[in-house]
Hints:
mainly alpha
Amino acid sequence: MDIATGLGLIAGVVVIFTLILMGGDFRMFYDIHAIIIIFGGSIAATLIRFPLAAMFHGLPLGAKFAFSLRRIGPRELVDEIAGLAEVARKQGPVGLEKVETQDVFLAKGIRYVADGYDADFIRDNLERDRDNFLTHLDEGQKIYRAVGDCAPAFGMIGTLIGMVQMFANMTDPSKLGPFMAVALLATLYGALVANLVCLPIADKLHGKLVDEEINRTLIIDGILMIRDSKSPTLVREMLLAYLPEKHRHHADAETAPA
Protein backbone atom coordinates (compact mmCIF):
# COMPACT_ATOMS: atom_id res chain seq x y z
CA MET A 1 0.00 0.00 0.00
CA ASP A 2 1.18 3.53 -0.77
CA ILE A 3 1.20 4.94 2.76
CA ALA A 4 1.88 8.50 1.57
CA THR A 5 -1.49 8.76 -0.20
CA GLY A 6 -3.44 7.53 2.81
CA LEU A 7 -1.48 9.64 5.29
CA GLY A 8 -1.92 12.75 3.16
CA LEU A 9 -5.68 12.33 2.90
CA ILE A 10 -6.05 11.56 6.61
CA ALA A 11 -3.87 14.54 7.57
CA GLY A 12 -5.88 16.86 5.33
CA VAL A 13 -9.20 15.65 6.75
CA VAL A 14 -7.91 15.99 10.32
CA VAL A 15 -6.76 19.57 9.68
CA ILE A 16 -10.11 20.58 8.15
CA PHE A 17 -12.20 18.92 10.87
CA THR A 18 -10.01 20.40 13.61
CA LEU A 19 -10.47 23.91 12.27
CA ILE A 20 -14.22 23.36 11.88
CA LEU A 21 -14.67 22.05 15.43
CA MET A 22 -12.48 24.81 16.90
CA GLY A 23 -14.75 27.45 15.43
CA GLY A 24 -18.20 25.99 15.94
CA ASP A 25 -20.53 23.11 15.15
CA PHE A 26 -19.95 20.70 12.28
CA ARG A 27 -23.57 21.13 11.22
CA MET A 28 -22.74 24.71 10.22
CA PHE A 29 -20.59 23.32 7.39
CA TYR A 30 -23.11 20.86 6.01
CA ASP A 31 -25.45 21.83 3.19
CA ILE A 32 -27.13 19.37 0.87
CA HIS A 33 -27.60 21.95 -1.89
CA ALA A 34 -23.87 22.67 -2.02
CA ILE A 35 -23.10 18.92 -2.11
CA ILE A 36 -25.49 18.43 -5.04
CA ILE A 37 -24.01 21.26 -7.10
CA ILE A 38 -20.40 20.14 -6.50
CA PHE A 39 -20.65 16.38 -6.92
CA GLY A 40 -23.56 16.31 -9.34
CA GLY A 41 -22.15 19.07 -11.53
CA SER A 42 -18.58 17.69 -11.53
CA ILE A 43 -19.72 14.17 -12.43
CA ALA A 44 -22.02 15.49 -15.15
CA ALA A 45 -19.26 17.59 -16.74
CA THR A 46 -16.80 14.68 -16.55
CA LEU A 47 -19.31 12.37 -18.24
CA ILE A 48 -19.54 14.86 -21.08
CA ARG A 49 -15.74 14.95 -21.44
CA PHE A 50 -15.05 11.21 -21.43
CA PRO A 51 -16.69 8.07 -22.85
CA LEU A 52 -18.58 5.96 -20.33
CA ALA A 53 -16.19 3.04 -20.88
CA ALA A 54 -13.23 5.25 -19.94
CA MET A 55 -15.01 6.22 -16.72
CA PHE A 56 -15.60 2.57 -15.81
CA HIS A 57 -11.97 1.64 -16.54
CA GLY A 58 -10.18 4.77 -15.40
CA LEU A 59 -11.82 5.57 -12.07
CA PRO A 60 -11.40 2.14 -10.38
CA LEU A 61 -7.90 1.59 -11.77
CA GLY A 62 -6.87 5.11 -10.76
CA ALA A 63 -8.22 4.68 -7.23
CA LYS A 64 -6.48 1.31 -6.93
CA PHE A 65 -3.05 2.54 -8.04
CA ALA A 66 -3.27 5.78 -6.06
CA PHE A 67 -3.30 3.67 -2.90
CA SER A 68 -1.10 0.77 -4.01
CA LEU A 69 2.65 0.52 -4.27
CA ARG A 70 4.61 -1.56 -6.77
CA ARG A 71 6.01 -4.62 -5.04
CA ILE A 72 9.27 -4.62 -6.98
CA GLY A 73 11.20 -1.48 -7.93
CA PRO A 74 13.41 -1.08 -11.01
CA ARG A 75 16.58 -1.91 -9.05
CA GLU A 76 15.09 -5.18 -7.80
CA LEU A 77 13.76 -5.92 -11.29
CA VAL A 78 17.25 -5.67 -12.80
CA ASP A 79 18.62 -8.07 -10.17
CA GLU A 80 15.73 -10.51 -10.62
CA ILE A 81 15.91 -10.53 -14.42
CA ALA A 82 19.67 -11.04 -14.28
CA GLY A 83 19.01 -14.00 -11.98
CA LEU A 84 16.48 -15.37 -14.46
CA ALA A 85 19.06 -15.06 -17.22
CA GLU A 86 21.43 -17.13 -15.10
CA VAL A 87 18.76 -19.82 -14.61
CA ALA A 88 17.97 -19.89 -18.34
CA ARG A 89 21.66 -20.14 -19.20
CA LYS A 90 22.29 -23.10 -16.86
CA GLN A 91 19.02 -25.00 -17.18
CA GLY A 92 17.58 -23.73 -20.47
CA PRO A 93 14.14 -22.14 -20.92
CA VAL A 94 12.49 -25.15 -19.24
CA GLY A 95 14.20 -24.20 -15.99
CA LEU A 96 12.16 -20.98 -15.89
CA GLU A 97 8.97 -22.99 -15.33
CA LYS A 98 9.91 -23.47 -11.66
CA VAL A 99 10.70 -19.78 -11.08
CA GLU A 100 8.20 -17.71 -9.10
CA THR A 101 7.97 -13.92 -9.06
CA GLN A 102 5.72 -11.35 -7.39
CA ASP A 103 5.41 -9.25 -10.55
CA VAL A 104 2.49 -10.44 -12.69
CA PHE A 105 3.82 -8.81 -15.87
CA LEU A 106 7.26 -10.39 -15.43
CA ALA A 107 5.66 -13.76 -14.68
CA LYS A 108 3.76 -13.55 -17.97
CA GLY A 109 6.99 -12.91 -19.88
CA ILE A 110 8.75 -15.79 -18.11
CA ARG A 111 5.90 -18.12 -19.08
CA TYR A 112 6.21 -17.10 -22.74
CA VAL A 113 9.95 -17.87 -22.74
CA ALA A 114 9.48 -21.17 -20.92
CA ASP A 115 6.80 -22.21 -23.43
CA GLY A 116 9.15 -21.50 -26.33
CA TYR A 117 7.29 -18.68 -28.09
CA ASP A 118 9.26 -16.73 -30.68
CA ALA A 119 10.63 -13.26 -29.95
CA ASP A 120 8.15 -11.38 -32.16
CA PHE A 121 5.16 -13.00 -30.46
CA ILE A 122 6.57 -12.20 -27.01
CA ARG A 123 7.35 -8.59 -27.92
CA ASP A 124 3.96 -7.95 -29.54
CA ASN A 125 1.94 -9.41 -26.67
CA LEU A 126 3.92 -7.80 -23.87
CA GLU A 127 3.96 -4.40 -25.56
CA ARG A 128 0.21 -4.62 -26.18
CA ASP A 129 -0.37 -5.55 -22.55
CA ARG A 130 1.85 -2.67 -21.39
CA ASP A 131 0.18 -0.13 -23.68
CA ASN A 132 -3.35 -1.16 -22.65
CA PHE A 133 -2.45 -0.88 -19.00
CA LEU A 134 -0.82 2.52 -19.44
CA THR A 135 -3.82 3.75 -21.46
CA HIS A 136 -6.24 2.86 -18.66
CA LEU A 137 -3.95 4.39 -16.05
CA ASP A 138 -3.68 7.55 -18.13
CA GLU A 139 -7.46 7.66 -18.44
CA GLY A 140 -7.67 7.44 -14.65
CA GLN A 141 -5.36 10.39 -14.04
CA LYS A 142 -7.11 12.46 -16.71
CA ILE A 143 -10.53 11.77 -15.17
CA TYR A 144 -9.40 12.70 -11.67
CA ARG A 145 -7.77 15.84 -13.04
CA ALA A 146 -10.99 16.70 -14.91
CA VAL A 147 -13.03 16.37 -11.71
CA GLY A 148 -10.44 18.48 -9.92
CA ASP A 149 -10.76 21.15 -12.60
CA CYS A 150 -14.58 21.08 -12.51
CA ALA A 151 -15.12 21.14 -8.76
CA PRO A 152 -13.94 24.74 -8.10
CA ALA A 153 -15.85 25.96 -11.15
CA PHE A 154 -19.06 24.38 -9.90
CA GLY A 155 -18.28 25.79 -6.48
CA MET A 156 -18.36 29.22 -8.10
CA ILE A 157 -21.62 28.32 -9.86
CA GLY A 158 -23.09 27.30 -6.50
CA THR A 159 -21.90 30.57 -5.01
CA LEU A 160 -23.59 32.54 -7.78
CA ILE A 161 -26.82 30.55 -7.39
CA GLY A 162 -26.81 31.17 -3.65
CA MET A 163 -26.20 34.89 -4.11
CA VAL A 164 -28.98 35.20 -6.69
CA GLN A 165 -31.37 33.46 -4.31
CA MET A 166 -30.20 35.62 -1.44
CA PHE A 167 -30.68 38.90 -3.29
CA ALA A 168 -34.04 37.73 -4.61
CA ASN A 169 -35.25 37.24 -1.02
CA MET A 170 -33.87 40.36 0.63
CA THR A 171 -37.36 41.12 1.97
CA ASP A 172 -37.35 37.87 4.00
CA PRO A 173 -34.42 37.94 6.48
CA SER A 174 -35.06 34.31 7.51
CA LYS A 175 -33.94 33.08 4.07
CA LEU A 176 -30.75 35.11 3.83
CA GLY A 177 -28.72 32.81 6.09
CA PRO A 178 -29.45 29.52 4.26
CA PHE A 179 -28.83 31.05 0.84
CA MET A 180 -25.56 32.61 2.04
CA ALA A 181 -24.53 29.20 3.42
CA VAL A 182 -25.11 27.64 0.00
CA ALA A 183 -23.04 30.39 -1.61
CA LEU A 184 -20.05 29.98 0.72
CA LEU A 185 -20.14 26.21 1.28
CA ALA A 186 -20.27 25.46 -2.46
CA THR A 187 -16.96 27.27 -2.89
CA LEU A 188 -15.52 25.47 0.15
CA TYR A 189 -16.58 22.03 -1.05
CA GLY A 190 -15.26 22.68 -4.55
CA ALA A 191 -11.86 23.77 -3.23
CA LEU A 192 -11.60 20.74 -0.91
CA VAL A 193 -12.61 18.18 -3.54
CA ALA A 194 -10.14 19.62 -6.05
CA ASN A 195 -7.11 20.39 -3.87
CA LEU A 196 -7.31 17.67 -1.24
CA VAL A 197 -8.53 14.70 -3.30
CA CYS A 198 -8.73 14.85 -7.09
CA LEU A 199 -5.72 16.90 -8.19
CA PRO A 200 -3.26 15.22 -5.76
CA ILE A 201 -4.49 11.78 -6.88
CA ALA A 202 -4.13 12.82 -10.53
CA ASP A 203 -0.52 13.90 -9.91
CA LYS A 204 0.20 10.66 -8.03
CA LEU A 205 -1.19 8.61 -10.92
CA HIS A 206 0.88 10.55 -13.45
CA GLY A 207 4.04 9.74 -11.52
CA LYS A 208 3.11 6.07 -11.28
CA LEU A 209 2.30 5.99 -15.00
CA VAL A 210 5.84 7.15 -15.79
CA ASP A 211 7.31 4.58 -13.39
CA GLU A 212 5.20 1.74 -14.79
CA GLU A 213 6.17 2.60 -18.34
CA ILE A 214 9.86 2.38 -17.42
CA ASN A 215 9.46 -0.80 -15.38
CA ARG A 216 7.39 -2.65 -17.97
CA THR A 217 9.67 -1.62 -20.84
CA LEU A 218 12.61 -2.82 -18.75
CA ILE A 219 10.87 -6.16 -18.25
CA ILE A 220 10.14 -6.54 -21.98
CA ASP A 221 13.76 -5.89 -22.92
CA GLY A 222 14.98 -8.26 -20.21
CA ILE A 223 12.63 -11.05 -21.26
CA LEU A 224 13.66 -10.73 -24.90
CA MET A 225 17.35 -10.90 -23.96
CA ILE A 226 16.67 -14.02 -21.90
CA ARG A 227 14.79 -15.45 -24.91
CA ASP A 228 17.89 -14.77 -27.03
CA SER A 229 20.14 -16.52 -24.46
CA LYS A 230 22.14 -13.40 -23.60
CA SER A 231 24.62 -13.70 -20.75
CA PRO A 232 23.47 -12.55 -17.28
CA THR A 233 26.24 -9.95 -17.19
CA LEU A 234 25.15 -8.44 -20.50
CA VAL A 235 21.50 -8.49 -19.40
CA ARG A 236 22.37 -6.63 -16.21
CA GLU A 237 24.52 -4.06 -18.01
CA MET A 238 21.84 -3.38 -20.61
CA LEU A 239 19.06 -3.01 -18.04
CA LEU A 240 21.07 -0.75 -15.74
CA ALA A 241 20.53 1.98 -18.33
CA TYR A 242 16.94 2.23 -17.04
CA LEU A 243 18.08 3.15 -13.54
CA PRO A 244 18.84 6.70 -12.36
CA GLU A 245 22.53 7.55 -12.46
CA LYS A 246 23.16 7.23 -8.70
CA HIS A 247 21.40 3.85 -8.49
CA ARG A 248 23.29 2.67 -11.55
CA HIS A 249 26.67 3.38 -9.98
CA HIS A 250 25.52 1.81 -6.72
CA ALA A 251 24.56 -1.36 -8.56
CA ASP A 252 27.89 -1.40 -10.40
CA ALA A 253 29.74 -1.14 -7.08
CA GLU A 254 27.83 -4.09 -5.63
CA THR A 255 28.47 -6.35 -8.61
CA ALA A 256 32.14 -5.40 -9.01
CA PRO A 257 34.60 -8.14 -8.00
CA ALA A 258 36.26 -7.71 -4.58
